[in-house]
Write a structure and sequence with these properties.
6-stranded parallel sheet; 2 domains; alpha/beta; single chain; 6 strands
C-alpha cells in the first residue's frame, strides 16, 4: 500500500565519518552500500530501493518531518563528533533525529532529541524514544520458492523440528563441550546426548 503522503526526511552525507556507510533508510536516495553488493544477501534491499521513494522524500532540514542520522550508531565505541554535530544541527531546527543502532547492545544513545530504532531491547528499561526493528532480510518466498508462493505442507504423524539460526555441528568438540557444560550446570545429563538420541530415534 502506497501512503497518501510521503514522510519528509533530511540527512547530509557530510556528516558521515570516513570509512562509514550511510544508513539503510537512505538507500533509495543514495544507493546500496558497496559492501552489500559482495554479500550473499545482496538482494535484501532491492525491493526497498525500488519503492522507498513512494514512502519518503528528501527535503531541506526546515521542511523535513525528521532528520535521519546519516550513518548507524555503533555500540561500545567512541562515535565520531560528526554525529553529535548533526544531532545538534537538527535540534536547533526543532527536529528529532532518527538513529539506527544494530547489534546486541542495550546502551543508551546520548542524544536527547533522538528516536532510536534498535534490534536489542529490554522491556524493563525501554524508553519512550526506543523502538524495536528487525534485521533486514530478503523476501524468502519471492526469492526462493517456486512461483513466489508458500505452500503449506500437510502434517505428518511423525513430527519434525526446524531451526532458524546458527549452531555448531553436533559432531564438533566445541558444540559438545558447550551443550555438556549447560547440562552439568543444570545438574542434568549432558544435553548433547539427549539431542543425539532424539536425532537417531525420532528424526523423520
Amino acid at each position: 500500500m502506497i501512503p497518501a503522503k510521503r514522510l519528509k526526511l533530511f540527512s547530509d552525507r557530510n556528516y558521515i565519518p570516513e570509512g562509514k556507510s550511510h544508513v539503510t533508510m537512505l538507500i533509495p536516495f543514495w544507493g546500496k552500500h558497496r559492501e552489500e553488493l559482495e554479500t550473499l544477501q545482496n538482494r535484501r534491499y532491492n525491493r526497498y530501493a525500488e519503492v522507498g521513494e513512494s514512502f519518503f522524500e528528501l527535503t531541506s532540514l526546515e521542511q523535513a518531518d525528521f532528520a535521519v542520522m546519516p550513518t548507524d550508531w555503533e555500540p561500545s565505541v567512541h562515535n565520531d563528533d560528526l554525529l553529535f554535530q548533526f544531532a545538534e544541527k537538527a535540534k536547533r531546527a526543532g527536529k528529532s533525529v532518527i538513529v539506527f543502532l544494530w547489534g546486541m547492545s542495550f546502551e543508551d544513545v546520548p542524544i536527547d532529541n533522538a528516536i532510536v530504532f534498535r534490534n536489542s531491547l529490554l522491556r524493563s528499561s525501554q524508553k519512550p524514544n526506543q523502538l524495536a526493528v528487525p534485521f533486514w532480510m530478503e523476501d524468502f518466498v519471492t526469492e526462493y520458492l517456486e512461483g513466489g508462493k508458500l505452500s503449506v505442507r500437510k502434517k505428518s504423524a511423525k513430527p519434525s523440528v526446524g531451526f532458524c539460526g546458527f549452531a555448531d555441528p553436533l559432531k564438533t568438540s566445541r558444540a559438545k563441550g558447550r551443550l555438556s557444560s549447560e547440562g552439568k550446570r543444570e545438574g542434568k545429563q549432558p544435553v548433547w546426548w539427549d539431542v543425539l538420541f532424539a536425532r537417531r530415534h525420532y528424526a523423520p
